[in-house]
Amino acid sequence: MNRRFFLGLAAAGLAGSSALMLGGNAALAKSVDVSSVLRDPEAPVGGNPRGDVTIVAFFDYNCPYCKLSAVDLARVVKEDGRIRLVYKDWAILSAASVQGAQYALAAKYQGKYVAAHNALMRLSGGHRSGAEMLQAIKASGVDVNRLQADLSAHGPQISALMKRNHAQALGLGMNGTPTYLIGDFRTSTLDYNGFKQAVAEARRRQAVN
User: Fold this and answer.
1) If the chain, 209 residues long, is cut into consecutive pieces of 10 residues, what is the mean pLDDT of each piece?
2) Residues 60, 70: contact at Cβ < 8 Å?
3) FRET label pair with 22: which of 104, 150, 167, 176, CA 20 to 30 Å apart?
4) What per-residue confidence (pLDDT) applies to 31?
5) What is the set of domains in the chain, with CATH numbers?
6) pTM for the complete prediction?
7) How far is residue 49's CA from residue 116's CA, in Å, rounded to a whole number?
8) Under a CB-based contact definition with an 8 Å cutoff, are residues 56 and 200 in contact?
9) Cβ distance 180 to 57 under 8 Å?
């Protein structure tokens, strides 16, 4: 990933304003509140909650490109130690995708969202069923009985969060998964070096603003 890449992704105002403008589109800037993207209290957060750079990840558990980049993203977040990672379950590919997102978000209520997320991202291929996803989550150590109970008890909150994620993605003009917001930039699939360079550039821009 080079400088030309960043020039194509520049976005104004992500870190410090109440409206997000991507690609210079004023209509999008008026339609999306940054705080709702970065600070939704229901959205799971990983990495360092007090990190100096935030990555917002929009993904689908049946998206092979999401799975490809998730490994490198997790590695960068772990090695860096100063990245706040916001998970945005954006289930757009199939009914099973919706089920997977619901299961992962229900696991949050027993403190196991990241475990469930990682388990689903490790499933190979792009057409896994809801039953296969549930089995993978169970194998990761999540209490499935409690998960089902939490899914019933917190179903309205989970549904509302997924609808907000969808509205945010559309409001920002996203057209597929994965999509990542990294500091002032928006991008799709990145590899390990790509994520590292994007984070470094986000920090550099924050330092001069």
Assistant:
1) 34 30 42 85 97 97 96 97 98 96 98 98 91 98 98 97 96 93 90 96 89
2) no
3) 104
4) 66
5) 3-208 (3.40.30.10)
6) 0.86
7) 19
8) no
9) yes
Question: Which amino acid, residue 185?
Answer: F
DSSP for 25-37, written as a single string = -HHHHHH-BHHHH
Cα–Cα distance between 202 and 193 in angstroms, integer? 14
Burial 157-184 (b: 16+ CB within 10 A, else e): ebeebbebbbebbebbebebbbbbbbbb
Three-state secondary structure string covering 38-82: HCCCCCCEEECCCCCEEEEEEECCCCHHHHHHHHHHHHHHHHHCC
The whole-angstrom separation of Cα 148 and Cα 32 is 33
Peptide bond into 178 cis (omega under 30): yes
Q: Which two tokens stand for residue 138?
A: 């169970």
User: In the prediction, which pLDDT does 108 show?
Assistant: 98
What is the per-residue pLDDT for 35?
A: 82
Q: How far apart are the first and last CA of the chain?
A: 23
